[in-house]
Specification:
The structure is a single chain. This protein is an all-alpha fold. The protein has one domain (about 1-55). The protein has two helices and no strands. The chain has helices at about 1-20, 30-55. Helix 1 (about 1-20) packs antiparallel against helix 2. The protein is elongated, with a radius of gyration of 13 Å. The chain starts with a helix and ends with a helix.
């Protein structure tokens, strides 16, 4: 579960790098894609949390 959670974190990391790189010139068409990738990363964090609580 932890490995799958880490894999889910990768799109969120890439999205944050993309936003930091193109911050002054961010196109509004990419905002839904960035939001989706951050939601996937949040799911990865929740999956890692659930795996750590599991005995």
């Amino acid at each position: 579960m932890v490995m799958f959670g880490v894999i889910l974190l990768l799109p969120g990391i890439c999205a944050l790098i993309f936003v930091a790189d193109s911050s002054p010139h961010l196109d509004n068409r990419f905002i839904p894609i960035l939001a989706l990738t951050l939601l996937v990363a949040f799911a990865g964090v929740m999956l890692i949390r659930a795996a750590r609580k599991r005995p």
